[in-house]
Amino acid sequence: MNVELITIGDELLLGFTIDTNAAHLARSLASIGVSIGRRATVGDDASEIALAVREAFDRTGAVITTGGLGPTSDDRTRPAIAELFGRDLVPDEERWEALRALWRERGRGEIPLSNRGQIMIPRGATVLTNRHGTAPGIWLEDERGRWCAMLPGVPREMRGMLADELLPRLQGRFGTGSTVVRSRTIRTTGIAESKLAEVLGTLASGVDGLSLAYLPGQEGVDLRLTSRDRSAIDADQALDTAAAQLRDRVSRYAYGEDGTDLASAVLEACEARNLHVAVAESCTGGLLGARLTAIPGSSAVVLGGVIAYSNEVKRELLDVRQETLDAYGAVSEQVATEMAAGVRRLVGAHIGMSITGVAGPSGGTADKPVGLVWIGVDVEGTVRTHGSRFIGDRAEIRFRSTQAALDILRRMLGSDAGVR
After folding, report:
1. 418 within some domain
2. Do 146 and 22 reside in the same domain of the chain?
3. Which of 292, 274, 284 shows the shortest CA–CA distance to 373?
4. Cα separation of 195 and 411, whole Å?
5. DSSP state of 365
């Protein structure tokens, strides 16, 4: 079964809001054997909305829209599509009373009359209950069997309604497809996309009939396997086998699957060995510590850290020697080494991690350009350092620095040398 997806909102076209709804819908629909044949985005213009839906009907006869169901003047999805179906809008007074009660229950007083727009429903339509917000969804179908499902644009509401209302309706009306589209992602870091293809060798273009996509980003390069035209059981088995083959080829660089965060993987490895971590950061200004402590349960591993922006803090708190600073400068392998050892001693941790560099956009020199970063990881006296010139703007350089630091520790914990 194929459907078309239309996401609606000026904010999407202008780039102020990232369209996460389309990606979530595509993944969720694929899991029940429904494919999105085409995606489109239109602004808050009734004629553009109607045109997009009309053209989609001509191609597939099945459309899902998100956005434009709120109470304000720019929410034009409902009347535009109702007119396309030749239906007038009628008030759902029972839903209006429920909305009024909800507002009073939440201590907001009397609901504004402008919210009545949300209870204007195309005649003959089915209301899709929204348990996550105030804008109901709508299922509208004509005598030819063409249908349009309208969902709100707020991601939390859309996702909830998709799971609660739309997916069960599609499965009930059309049945679960005999085949599904499913994917599996192997996450890698510390290796370029082109080099990764070399390492994969004969698997570089796909594995046993499964397509393989390379998805580079700040974290590294994700390898996404996709199975099509298989049953759910066959797809899962094929993905399991193919993912195992990929992991075997790129094991040195792979740290997890699907949405795994490298910080989470490192914390799990530390906790399994009863190791505690402390961080010393200069150019990243606490970002490494923030990534680690963003993971629930990180207090079992992370003891603390120091933001050592100035040389004075490096000296006084981390015991970086003045002669080291004078001889090599703050951005150097030697200083990164002493920072890692210093914070490990200061906090009383098994592991000290340090980052010092030039994040830009200014401050670089010919010898130490913007993007140059040195990282030190000290695991109970076993030290590894890494120097690299990262590309990107200030935010990208800082993030890539933390990813590299975490990867160094991941690799050290994956070896037997000096690590419990």
Report:
1. no
2. yes
3. 284
4. 19
5. -
Residue 275 lies in a domain: yes
Half-sphere exposure of 54 (CA within 13 A, CB side): 12
Number of domains in the chain: 3
Last residue of a domain, one of 148, 174, 200: 174
Residues 272 and 231 placed together within one structural domain of the fold = no
Long-range contacts for 321-330 (Cβ within 8 Å, ≥24 apart)?
329/368, 330/282, 330/356
Same-domain status, 166 and 281 = no
Buried b (16+ CB within 10 A) or exposed e, 349-374: bbbbbbbbbbbbeeebeeebebbbbb
Side chain identity at residue 194, one-letter code = S
Do residues 381 and 287 both lie within one domain?
yes
Strand runs labelled E in 44-203: 62-66, 89-91, 120-122, 126-128, 137-141, 147-151, 180-188
Q: Are residues 153 and 62 in the same domain?
A: yes
Q: What is the dihedral of CA 306, 308, 311, 316, to 10 degrees?
A: -10
Contact (CB, 8 A) for 385 and 396: no
Closest CA to 373 of 289, 364, 411, 381: 364
Contact present, 134 and 102 (Cβ < 8 Å): yes
CATH of the domain at 288: 3.90.950.20
Tens digit of pLDDT per residue, the chain (420 long)? 789 999 999 999 999 999 999 999 998 998 888 889 999 999 999 999 999 999 999 999 999 999 999 887 778 999 999 999 999 999 988 888 888 888 888 888 888 888 888 889 999 999 999 998 888 999 999 999 999 999 999 999 999 999 999 999 998 887 766 788 889 999 999 999 999 999 999 999 999 999 999 999 999 999 999 998 888 899 999 999 999 999 999 999 999 999 999 999 999 999 999 999 999 999 999 999 999 999 999 999 999 999 999 999 999 999 999 999 999 999 999 999 999 999 999 999 999 999 999 999 999 999 999 999 999 999 999 999 999 999 999 999 999 999 999 999 999 998 543 444
Quick one: 210 and 290 in the same domain? no
φ and ψ at residue 382, rounded to 5 degrees? -85, 120
* Distance in angstroms (rounded) separating the CA atoms of residues 130 and 397: 42
User: Which candidate, 172, 171, 188, places its Cα nearest to that of 249?
Assistant: 188
Q: Specify the pTM.
A: 0.78
Query: Among 174, 204, 225, where does a domain finish?
Result: 174
Containing structural domain, residue 226: 180-257
The tokens for 226 are 């996709």
